[in-house]
Amino acid sequence: MRGQSLLEVNEICKAFGPTKALRGVGLRVRSGEVLALIGENGAGKSTLLKILSGAHWADSGQMSIGDRPFRPSGPSDTRQSGVAMIYQELNLAPELSVEDNLLLGCRGSGGGLLIRKRQRPQVLEALKTVGLGELSPTAIVGEQSIATQQMLEIARALVAEARIILFDEPTSSLPQKDVARLFTIINELKDREIGMVYISHFLEEVREVADRYVVLRDGENVGEGKMKDADDDTIVSLMVGRDVKNLFPTVPHSPGEPWVKVQELTGAPYPKKINIELRRGEIFGIAGLVGAGRTELIRTVFGLDHASNGIVVVDGKPIAPAIGERIKAGFGFISEDRKNEGLAQNLSIIDNLTLSRLTDYTIMGVLSLKRRKQAAEKLLERVQVKYNASDQAVSELSGGNQQKIAIARILHQQSDILLMDEPTKGIDVGTKSEVYRMLGELAATGKTIVFVSSYLPELLAVCDRIGVMARGELRDVRKTADWTEEEVMKVAIG
Prior knowledge:
The protein is an alpha/beta fold. The chain has two domains: 5-240, Rossmann fold (3-Layer(aba) Sandwich); 258-492, Rossmann fold, CATH 3.40.50. It contains 17 helices and 22 strands. The protein has a six-stranded mixed beta sheet with strand order 6-7-8-3-9-10, sandwiched between helices. A hairpin with a 2-residue loop joins strand 14 (309-314) and strand 15 (317-318). The protein is globular.
């Protein structure tokens, strides 16, 4: 029955050492609706979902499914209770077939054995429901697109007969057309009276898909209600604990003379004969669809990817393509893959900040740990990172604070030309606002910023000029005031 309570969470608390991640959190999930779980990075959203999925245990509090107490001993127990978790980082076995992935963790269909013939119809029905009716059950998952793998995660939940599905940033790696496809499927799941919890940092996305919302801040409930009754300013104010009148703060800066020139830069398969002239103190945005070659372009400019032709010139001098030479010339790079490339997750905050430049803290080859720590903590204060100790592992920080560490690293490296690939990906509205302010301040000091983003509102609000890429080519470059979202998309789709 639609609207019936499926899951109730009351007074859940969870601490990791001295850090209290959850402080008496509660929510209710109902059949046939989507509950948006909203909050800044570090607010406790993912921790709560991990408790619901059985990955973590709550220190105290109560949960129930229907009229039965719910305290899962692990992910398998959660799955058997009708709860499925879809993580931001896909949780599939890429070497196995579609069918094997969908049946992983399911009960056997005969004496503990997996009888494919009996379960194949269920697999096919799930694939059809998520729009993959043409996909062979024997196809290898690792050979499918990210969007298809995301749909397979949902199909696996359907095969497991989940009544409650938990989504943690499901659209973070999806192009817009696949986001629309996901929302269509979510609406179909609502018609099946499945209850869903949905985490996203995009308020326009939450507004489109959710019926109700709960806002967490510092591990506590601070607000809830019907989505249609709340405006964005109210929700953002609840998230950050203050009025946020300007989500896109602008810092006055004036682009100066041309400084960096990219000439005929070509890679395999992308980029294709790129020509750009960048100015001192300029924020240059790069828009385009996923796969347009934006990432390949700035990786090639930095020297991470091989250039088959073309040169990069700084202040009139051609720079050799080796990464070391590009760094010496003032280039700094932030990868869109924060987990695997942007930071060394097993190292400390201070190591991540300083290892790319230790010269200021060494005398005759001896490293002064005290001087390094003092400099690092001063930089952490400058970029407003929330942390317990500078020697804690960077993996213990929230996604937003990790992103600030990535930005602080290239500042510590004393880079003057900042190549940033999706620097606000996966971080909350409040932290995004701080990043935009930071970019403006850096431009005001004369630094040149290349800002790649799939989120057009931030490019249009923050950048001085925007170039649009399609199929590896830079199709058009204009002053930001001369662009609209519609014009950008027209160029992006060719």
